[in-house]
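Objective 1b. Sequence-to-structure analysis of Cell division protein FtsK.
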Amino acid sequence: MPALVPLLDAGHVQLTGTDRDGIAAVVPALLLRSVGRADPGTVRLFGYDPEHLGGGLAGFAPLGTAGLLTFVGPGGLGRLLDDLVEQIRRINETVLAGEYASLRALAAATGRRPEPWRVAVLLGGDELSRHERGQLDRVVRTGAACGVHLVVRGVDLPDDPTVTRVVVEPDDARIAGLSVALDAPPPAPLVTETCREVASRVNAGPPPAPFTDLLPPPEEYWREDSAHGLTAPIGEGPHGRPVLLTLGDYPPHALIGGPSGTGKTNLIFAWIGALASRYSPAELEFYLLDFKEGVSFARFAQGRRDPSWLPHMRLVGINVNTDREFGLALLRFLAEELRRRADAAKKHEVTKLAELRAVDPTGHWPRIVAVVDEFQALLAGRDVVAREAADLLEDLARRGRSQGIHLVLASQDVRGIEALWGRPALVAQFTLRIALPKALRILAERNDAAQSLPRHHAVVNAESGLVEGNEVARIPSASDWETWSELQHRLWRMRPQDAAPARLFDGDAIPRLADAPDFRALTASEQGVPRSPVALLGEIIDVQARSAALRLPRAPGRNLAVLGTRVDEACAVLDAAARSLARQHRPGSARFSIACLDPDADPAARALYDDLADDAAWYDEETVPELMAEVGDSLGAPGAPNSPHYLLLYAVDAAAGQLAGKAGRRTGLEQLRRILHDGPERRTHVLAWWRGVARMRADLGGAGARLDQIGAWVALDVQGAELSGALYPGTGGPDWYPRPWRGLYFDRAVHRTGQVIIPYGPSR
C-alpha cells in the first residue's frame, strides 16, 4: 500500500535518521509531488540550506524564474520564520477573518483558494536562538490552517499532532512508527523539466476569470438605481472577493493605463458589461471613442453582421486616429449637456444629479459615461484642437461630477502628454486609477505595484494612485465575440420600444448622401421655388451626423468654391450639392448647367447630368463660353426668367483659354465675375471647382482681387496658409492640414472658424 505523508493543508514533516543519502532522496520526492500535483503557482518553496548553499534543492532552481522558489542564505533563518509568522497572522486576520477555520475549509465552501501553499524547507543549520525557536513553534502550531508548512532536516520540531516524523536508517525507514520501503529518488531531469514547465505556465499568467462572474443573475438585470452613482465589479481580488469600481461624486472620473497587449480593451469591455447588466438605459448612457485603428468597439452599434446593439450606447467612434475634430465634437456635446443639466438644477434650486432626479422624476437624467481610448491623440500637438480639448476636459472633469457626467480616459502610455500632465488641476480630478501590468505614470510616483502584475490583472486605486489605495483585481475575459454577444443580445431584447441604435462614426468609412438624415428630410417646396435652398456638401465631423449645409438665399456672395486637385473629392462635393438642391425643387422649376472641363471628372459629372434629366444642360470646353455669355448677359436683361439657376463648373480654371478664344479673355472672365457678383440676387448661383487657390485668384482678378463674391468654400488638398487673406478672417490662415477624403468648409456668413467635413461618397 502507498505510504502517504500528510503535508499540504495537513501538517509538517521532520526527517531524521543516520542515512543522509536516504533523507536527501526523500526531500525532492516529497517536494516534486507537491509542486507537480498542485495547480501551477499554488505552491511556493522557501529553501534554507546553509551547509550546501542551496545545492540540496538545485533541481528546483527553475521555479525561481516564476517567483516560486526563494533561497535564504546563512543567517537568514530568523527573517524567514518572522515572515512566515506574519503571513499566518495576515491570513487569519484578513482572509479567514473568523468565518473559516482554515484555508482548506474556505476553499471547500467557496470553490476558490485565495492563498498559495507556502512550504519552508529547512536543511540543517546552527542551533536556533530563543527567538527563532519561538517563531518555529508558532509556525508548527498555527501554520497548517493557513497553508504554511515545514519540511525539515537537522532541526527539531516540537511535539504536535500536525508533525509527521520520518526516520530513515540504512536498512529501515519508518513513518509514524510504520516500516516503509522508500521510493527511489526522482531522476534529476524529471525534477528540472517539471519545474521548468510549472514556471513557464506561471510566467504566462493565470487564465482570466469567467466574464459571467461580473454579471448579476439574469432576473436581476437593470435593477440598480444610478441616482447616487454607478458601482459594479471589475474582477476578483486576491481573497476571492469582488473588486468594485465606483463612479459618482467620489471618485468621479477614471484613468486607465497599460502597454499594448496588457488587456486595456478587455478591461473596458468587462467594465461596460458589468455596468450595462446592472443599470438600464434610463439610468446609464455610454459614449465611446477609440482613437487607435481597429473596429473592436463597433460591436456595440448596429452592424451588418449583427443587427443588435447595446441599448445604453449613444455614440461609438472608431478609427478616429486622424479625426481629432470628432473627439473635440464629443467634448463640445458633453459640455452642452452639462450646461443643460446645470440650468435644470439651477431652475429647481438643487446642485447634484440625485437631487435633480428627486425633484424632476419625469425628466431624462441618466448618468453619462464617456470613454476615450488613446485619448492622448486628442491632446497631441500645440494647435487649437488640443488647446480647446484640454480646456473642455478640465471643465467637464471639474463640474461633471455633480451632474452625473463621468470621463474614463485610457492610454497605452501617458508619458509626455503636455496638454494633460501640464494641467495638475485636471489630473487631480481623475482619482480612480486603473493600472495594467507594466503601466507607467498612472499610479502615484512611488507606487510601482503595476510593474509586478501578472497577466489578466490590474491595480485598482481610488485614492489618486497612492500606495495605500491599491487593490489587485483579476480581470475576466470579456472582449471575444461570443462572450460579449450573448450578453448584448439579452440586453438588446430587453430594450425599450422607442430605443434607437447608437450613432456609429467610422473614420475609415465614407458616408453616403442617401443615408444622411438631413438629405432624407429635404422635400420639394410647396411654392415650387424654396426661399432659401440648401446645398449639402458633406458630413460634419460631429456627434449628431449632421450635414454641412450651404444656404443659397437671394443675397450677395452666395456662391461656392471647391479648392484643390483631388478629383474624386471635388466631384463628390459638387455632386452632393446638386442632388440636395434638386431634391428641393419640383421638376422643371430649376435649371442646372453642368460644365465639365477635366476628363478625369467626366464620369462623375455625366452621372449627375443623367440623373437630373430634363432639368440639366451639358457644357464642355467648346460650349462653356456660350454658357458664360448667355448667363452673364441675361442677368441685366429685362424680362429675364427668375427661376433658380445653378452653375456646376468642374475644373473651371481650365476654361480660361476657351473664354479668351471665344469671347475674348477679358470678356469671358468678366462674365464669370459678373455672374458671381450679380447672380445670387437673381437666384443664379455658381458652385465651381478650382484646382488651386492661385488659379481661382487669377480668374477673379489677380492676387489683390476682392473675393467677396465667394461666400463659401471647401478646401481639399490646400494648406491653411494658402487660405489667408481675403478668403479667411485674421492672419495666417486656418489650422488646416489636408488629409484624404476630408475638407475644410468655411461660410463667411455663418462661421468664425473652418469646419472639417467628410465629402459624401459616390451616389452610384
